[in-house]
Amino acid sequence: MKPPRILVFDIFGTVVDWHGSIVRELGQRFPQVDADAFALAWRAGYQPAMEAVRSGGRGFVKLDVLHREILDGLLPRFGLAHLGEAERADLNRVWHRLAAWPDSVAGLTRLKSRFTICSLSNGNLGLLTDMAKAAGLPWDCVLSAEVFRAYKPDPRVYLGAADVFEAAPGEVMMVAAHHEDLAAARNCGLMTAYIERPLEFGAAHIKDVSPVAANTLHARDLLHLADQMGC
């Protein structure tokens, strides 16, 4: 394998534990709420909200806006319709405070020693920057769908990331815990590395992390990926 120049990373589920982080914060704030169900429902609104943008049904808006719209729709279902604006705004920012998986910082640091590492997420720039600051994620660069005004799996995101670094698509490796993200990247000519995150949706909802032969690499976590990349 000819090594890539640039590694670009999906974030939610791949680098950070969105489910566990939201469950912990909800449990502290609202112990009466089924935090597992709330976290899953919030995330379930993610793809439909982005699809409205992808389909041209609405103009591009930041993920923070979409998360807030989904949140406002969820609150009555979970007995939280009484929350005021300040509480809703702060709760929506839980996505800025997501904790990294235990291997993420060490794995990224090792990979950074040899490669340029960069986020490539549907999260907006402010969200990703706040998250990196809070979780200690050592990015060389923060890239977001917001830069390209398109949500993955739109090819503009993957090809745009390569263009930022004046790299050919084949010099870029997409790293993600989601096969659909990797398939879209592969269709654009990127190399792909799958990261197993069986607990992405929580211990009660174990995810199938079976290998897909089309991926360039398959790793247990980011430390294992660093091993495979010679870092």
TrEMBL record:
<keyword id="KW-0378">Hydrolase</keyword>
<dbReference type="InterPro" id="IPR023198">
    <property type="entry name" value="PGP-like_dom2"/>
</dbReference>
<dbReference type="InterPro" id="IPR023214">
    <property type="entry name" value="HAD_sf"/>
</dbReference>
<comment type="similarity">
    <text>Belongs to the HAD-like hydrolase superfamily. S-2-haloalkanoic acid dehalogenase family.</text>
</comment>
<dbReference type="InterPro" id="IPR006439">
    <property type="entry name" value="HAD-SF_hydro_IA"/>
</dbReference>
<dbReference type="InterPro" id="IPR051540">
    <property type="entry name" value="S-2-haloacid_dehalogenase"/>
</dbReference>
<protein>
    <recommendedName>
        <fullName>(S)-2-haloacid dehalogenase</fullName>
        <ecNumber>3.8.1.2</ecNumber>
    </recommendedName>
</protein>
<dbReference type="Pfam" id="PF00702">
    <property type="entry name" value="Hydrolase"/>
</dbReference>
<comment type="function">
    <text>Catalyzes the hydrolytic dehalogenation of small (S)-2-haloalkanoic acids to yield the corresponding (R)-2-hydroxyalkanoic acids.</text>
</comment>
<dbReference type="InterPro" id="IPR036412">
    <property type="entry name" value="HAD-like_sf"/>
</dbReference>
<dbReference type="InterPro" id="IPR006328">
    <property type="entry name" value="2-HAD"/>
</dbReference>
<dbReference type="GO" id="GO:0018784">
    <property type="term" value="F:(S)-2-haloacid dehalogenase activity"/>
</dbReference>
